[in-house]
């Protein structure tokens, strides 16, 4: 277990972001940070800017003003491809659904970040991927199958294994349980939280489903910190 | 980059049925372009080979293209003949190595008859061995036939044939003076294949009792008696001329043009052929442009297939972005896919063209005398292929750029 509350892995300071063509900013946050190893539950109604904030934290979008940094490095100071490299080196990402490339096997899907990032390759391995998959309840008989042959719940767990392979400091999950029924949702949260804890990765988990909030150490209601939430809509 | 290559390949393989159609349409466009280009080149070579070795063609004054067409290709007819004395004077010219006189006008079942001398077999087509079997005509009523004549009419050596006066189907026959086939020529892909060759004296002999295009009533000269008459030709249609030194070609041409006894003209077959190509070239270019359009249509197909698939692939591209592929990788992925599809299409088209030439070549040669050879691409074909590859790749950049923009705008959460 890695100690929560030590150093900040993600920091946002006086962050403002306006979608091109929009009149008002979508994100306006004075201060937000995620510490190493902590599991943050970020929630709020649809359209309050959750996905936009995640894109800003992951360096896919760059702040209009203010500062967003990953491990102390300001995203805005980096060029497009440097951000791409830094993102894959330090961040694992899980989508709501359709996380896997249908033409790759389960194992190849998990190892994808290692193809693009030397750091993930150095800290990850096939053995680690096997261990993660086994931990997620994906048996060895499924590893070489096409990702399409898996159930939705299995696909989300494979995506979680992929987000964690190579020990990134941060895992960002964008409503990964919304396509799952209740039993699968609980099972998925069990394995995701356990894996993040054992790898020492911080988890930013976005959902509008407050029933699962109790599983997380820290809750953030986005409209409370986002001063733009009242009148903003993502483009 | 290798990671991307294998992903591009697997992604393309995943959509192989759609992409295969695109590959196939590019292959067809390639096949068409190559085919048209190859046939065009070979056609020109065939035409050029019909006059190869001949330095000048001499005939009565007319258009140079017209003289070339009727003397060599037996298309159209001469307006005037040239006197035998002029031919003899030409033979005496110090710069002239050989003269092959040609006398046209008769036909045999639709095939033109050319009366000439044995020099024909020694000099036409640079003196290459023309005879496939038999020998050149030596007796008065001997005939040597081209490969098409032999094949289409089923003639062999010793076949008796009668010639018709004029070139129509329903023309009076020289039935009283049958000829014997003594030689059959090799297939050349030139008008020679469709020609019946006889001696100039024979031409005179079968026309002894004729005047104004019909037999003179009441006059019958049996074949055995024609030798009693003067069978020296009085005039011929044209003459092929070879020079001792090609450098003298303009001097000899001028000599012919200013020949005092009779108005004559001499043409350089290569120049006349070029003039002919300038006319035919419009049609050729139209054909090539049409194939080019087919190429554009199939490339448009490539663009639309990739474009249409792009929306379905936004999720795939977002996943790639999430695992570390940059927007530039996405652009490269689509460009790579376009390149794979284009290269496969062009390669398949080239292969099909080669197979087509190998399979249809002998048949084309047998039926049309068109010698399509299996050869390495010519410079022109190479340029065509390069243009196709470049155009295909550029076309595939279009959806690539769109995907690049989409993936920049979508970030990690595609709105679909």
Notes on the structure:
The complex is a heterodimer of chains A (235) and B (416). The N and C termini of chain A lie far apart (40 Å). Chain A has a single domain, classed as Rossmann fold. Chain A has helices at residues 50-57, 80-90, 106-110, 112-116, 118-123, 126-135, 152-164, 182-199, 222-225; strands spanning 8-17, 27-35, 39-43, 65-70, 73-74, 91-94, 170-174, 202-207, 218-221. Chain A has 9 helices and 9 strands. Chain A is globular. In chain A, the strands form 2 sheets. A 5-stranded parallel beta sheet of chain A has the order 6-7-8-3-9, sandwiched between helices. A 4-stranded antiparallel beta sheet of chain A has the order 2-1-4-5, covered by helices on one side. With 235 residues, chain A is of the alpha/beta class. Chain B has 11 helices and 15 strands. Chain B has helices at residues 2-14, 16-50, 64-72, 84-92, 119-123, 147-153, 200-206, 249-257, 269-322, 327-368, 379-410; strands at residues 56-60, 82-83, 96-102, 107-108, 111-116, 131-134, 142-145, 160-161, 179-185, 196-199, 210-211, 214-215, 235-236, 238-243, 264-267. In chain B, strands 4, 5, 6, 7, 8, 9 and 10 form a 7-stranded mixed beta sheet that branches. Chain B has a 4-stranded antiparallel beta sheet with strand order 3-14-1-15, sandwiched between helices. A two-stranded antiparallel ribbon of chain B has the order 2-13. Chain B is elongated. The chains are: A alpha/beta (235), B alpha+beta (416).
Summary of the model, kept short:
The complex is a heterodimer of chains A (235) and B (416). Chain A is an alpha/beta fold. In chain A, 34% of the residues lie in helices and 22% in strands.
